[in-house]
Write a structure and sequence with these properties.
heterodimer; A: alpha/beta; Rossmann fold; six-stranded mixed beta sheet; 6 strands; about 35% helix; elongated; B: alpha/beta; Nucleotidyltransferase, domain 5; Glucose Oxidase, domain 1; 3 domains; eight-stranded mixed beta sheet; about 30% helix; about 30% strand
Chain lengths: ~300, ~450
């Protein structure tokens, strides 16, 4: 089959298909007045509804379901994107917009900063790891775990003596998580320690902070235990999830398995104040047993 | 990892007395890296007693001593010691609950059966337990359907309306298989007073199938009225028990009928009518022919044992896993519930109560620390220790410690969450299971 025959065959096949007429380049005038846009229902100054305001657990888009009511009741238990229906083989517009909005929020949480006033407004001293900026923080995890001499000096000045408990608030991978949860959680921890007769010490805020920065603070202060509240890597479910990492006798090089973790602290997970009250109890247990992480067998826990 | 609770159920009904032993498996559903979320993951029945006739001293007194012997004998057969029993419920149901010494017998038995075996009576709770024990609540949840469950026993029928697994209404009618009893000779030995004015049967008369059928049809009609399948008449009011709270509003939507109780066996099986010396078989067949069985209906996964299984397996729930308690002697028994909508009403509401009460509040989802302390201060401005609180939202541990930090160390404080109770209920709260507390809500539970 030569080139001409092939072209003829393709033309014939295309001819049998129901296709829109092709627009020749010469007839294409993108700047010419277009037919009037479809009426959107919105006027000047109106707002498009906020897709992120919709509760995913209640958003059910499947059309003509067999038992929609049952699906809705199951959906109440998970933030997973289920029952989202479809437009042909693709997502519906709302699903797609929401997905992109959540993805953007997750990225924002990583790249945005905890406000410069955050520490001072909450009565904390702020220190910074060796990272100079967010880019270095993201590309050099090792720099997010240690402090230069100046910041070590600042830590020493802020924290007198060898505290039993050192609470550290670190921005981590989500500034939004810290802004939303850290202080509610921290205050509940302090109150819980207070009723247990444990000195909650002087909390400190660390910018560009990785979990290991707590070990360096252990080196500098000689504290018996570090409890770090740190923003978790954001996901599509929430950009505001925070974790607490509790390490007994923290020091540089301590094994990751020596940390006790309480994760998923956010409004739809464990509420910050309840998590704080729980963490205070954990701290007491860890101080009593003198061990944290996998070595800690919680009696009575099932 | 899991923890097991041994739970006992004892049902002293109009006709029968039964006991079961079950095991509740408590598991942590959260990951090891999160705050625990304990729940009762499985309810396994370990032992079922035979069905005893409820021993009576006379028409108005239960034979407490005899029941105690039954319990003792069944514990022996089940290989169970009193101290092995973690939780459970003893209930006196149906006509037996109207005996003069019912309460005293119940309380004595609950102490005998185990430290945290709660004693209770009342048609609302029975309806809830029967609906759960018969699997009707689970069926409703699985299928997403509305179910009207009827536990038809010897003296009473307990009704429960269940939407998507949640029991939303309960009721009780004086409809049962043993409202009329007769001997092998066919001579009537008992006619329940609830039938006075409704039939002409008299003790000493010889009874035939033809005499009983109109009575059974009449009782069935009352059930149809309660199910909204027949125009309501005075008959329904006449057969509604005095204890039933408020009356039972017939469901508006179409429902799946579900049956348990001894009479349910007579719906599925056509026994010879005089077999049990009562009208059970005739009533069962009358129901089988009635409007109740024209649409979709099901017999419970348990029939005569539904209530006792409910008492043994479904009476205990767990609180949230982050709770607070200080200087509390467990178990707490029969603590009345006071519903609080606005914290400013606490003082006024508590003054209406004699003795200790537990304050039931909605609480707030994911509150701020400031909101928690403000609530703690408001509560302490209105009342002094002991402070007992029951919240729906997950905030009990934070609120409890906010209260503790503002009161002397010897103050008695209990703060639990994730339990929904309605006004007029009573709570029993047992010793902690891991970090949660077992709770039995008595009287009507309107679940969420």
């Amino acid at each position: 089959m030569n080139k001409q025959e092939l072209a003829a065959m393709v033309a014939q096949i295309l001819g049998t298909m129901d296709m829109p007429p092709m627009v020749k380049a010469g007839e294409y005038h993108p700047t010419a007045p277009q037919p009037e846009a479809k009426e959107t229902g919105y006027g000047d100054g109106d707002f498009v509804p906020d897709v992120t305001a919709l509760d995913l657990r209640k958003l059910y888009l499947t059309e003509n379901p067999e038992n929609g009511e049952k699906f809705r009741s199951m959906k109440e238990r998970t933030p997973a994107r289920l029952g989202s229906g479809r437009a042909g083989p693709r997502y519906k517009t709302l699903t797609m917009l929401r997905f992109r909005a959540d993805h953007a929020a997750a990225q924002d949480a990583v790249f945005s900063q905890v406000s410069p006033d955050f520490a001072s407004q909450n009565g904390m001293v702020e220190v910074q790891t060796r990272c100079k900026d967010k880019d270095e923080y993201l590309t050099r995890p090792d720099h997010g775990r240690c402090f230069d001499a100046e910041n070590q000096q600042k830590i020493r000045a802020a924290i007198p003596g060898k505290p039993k408990v050192q609470i550290v608030v670190g921005d981590g991978l989500s500034s939004a998580a810290i802004t939303a949860n850290a202080m509610d959680c921290l205050q509940a921890i302090r109150e819980g320690l207070q009723i247990r007769g444990i000195d909650p010490g002087t909390p400190i805020f660390v910018r560009y902070c990785r979990v290991g920065a707590g070990d360096a603070i252990g080196d500098v202060t000689g504290c018996e235990l570090v409890c770090m509240l740190v923003g978790e890597r954001p996901g599509l479910v929430t950009d505001k999830s925070m974790s607490a990492y509790i390490t007994y006798q923290p020091h540089t090089g301590v094994s990751e398995s020596a940390r006790t973790v309480v994760s998923n602290i956010h409004a739809q997970g464990t509420p910050a104040v309840e998590a704080g009250a729980h963490i205070a109890g954990l701290i007491e247990t860890i101080l009593q047993k003198k061990v944290s992480g996998v070595g800690l067998h919680l009696e009575g826990a099932v | 990892m899991s923890e097991r609770l041994c739970s006992v159920g004892l049902d002293v009904g109009t006709t029968s007395t039964q006991l079961i032993v079950s095991e509740l498996v408590v598991e942590n559903r959260a990951s090891a890296f999160a705050v625990p979320e304990l729940e009762i993951a499985q309810r396994e029945i370990r032992y079922k007693s035979p069905v005893y006739f409820t021993p009576l001293l006379d028409e108005s007194h239960v034979d407490g001593e005899k029941i105690r012997e039954i319990v003792q004998e069944e514990y022996r057969k089940a290989g169970l010691q009193r101290q092995d029993v973690d939780t459970g419920a003893i209930i006196i149901t149906g006509e037996t609950s109207r005996k003069e010494n019912a309460r005293a017998v119940l309380d004595a038995l609950s102490d005998f059966a185990g430290e945290f075996v709660v004693a209770t009576a009342g048609p609302d709770l029975e309806s809830v337990l029967a609906a759960k024990g018969a699997g009707a609540a689970a069926y409703s949840e699985q299928e997403g359907k509305t179910v009207l469950h009827m536990d038809i026993g010897g003296g009473t029928s307990n009704l429960a309306l269940i939407r998507k697994g949640q029991i939303v209404n309960t009721g009780c009618l004086n409809v049962g298989g043993r409202l009329v009893k007769f001997g092998e000779d066919g001579i009537i030995s008992y006619v329940s007073p609830v039938l006075s004015g409704l039939c002409n049967l008299k003790v000493g008369d010889r009874v035939t199938q033809e005499d009983l059928e109109p009575v059974a049809d009449m009782l069935t009609q009352a059930l149809e009225m309660a199910a909204g399948l027949r125009e309501k008449t005075q008959l329904l009011d006449k057969l509604t028990t005095a204890e039933a709270s408020g009356g039972f509003a017939p469901p508006q939507e179409s429902v799946v009928l579900s049956f348990s109780g001894g009479v349910a066996d007579c719906i599925g099986n056509d026994f010879p009518w005089p077999q049990f010396g009562d009208m059970g078989p005739i009533l069962g067949q009358a129901i089988r022919r009635s409007r109740l069985c024209q649409g979709q209906f099901r017999l419970g996964s348990e029939t005569i044992r539904a209530t006792v299984i409910g008492a043994g397996c479904h009476s205990t729930q767990l609180s949230g896993s982050t709770v607070f308690y200080q200087n509390v002697q467990f178990p707490l028994k029969n603590v009345p519930v006071v519903n609080i909508r606005n914290p400013q009403d606490i003082g006024r509401e508590l003054r209406k109560q004699e003795g200790t009460a537990i304050l039931a509040m909605q609480g707030k989802a994911a509150p701020s620390y400031r909101e928690v302390t403000a609530l703690a201060e408001e509560i302490l401005g209105q009342t002094q220790a002991p402070v007992l609180l029951c919240l729906e939202q997950d905030m009990a541990k934070a609120l409890g410690q906010a209260l503790a930090v503002r009161t002397p160390p010897q103050a008695q404080i209990l703060c639990i969450d994730r339990v929904k109770v309605s006004a007029g209920s009573y709570l029993d709260i047992g010793a902690p299971v891991a970090s949660a507390l077992p709770v039995v809500v008595k009287t009507l539970v309107l679940e969420q």
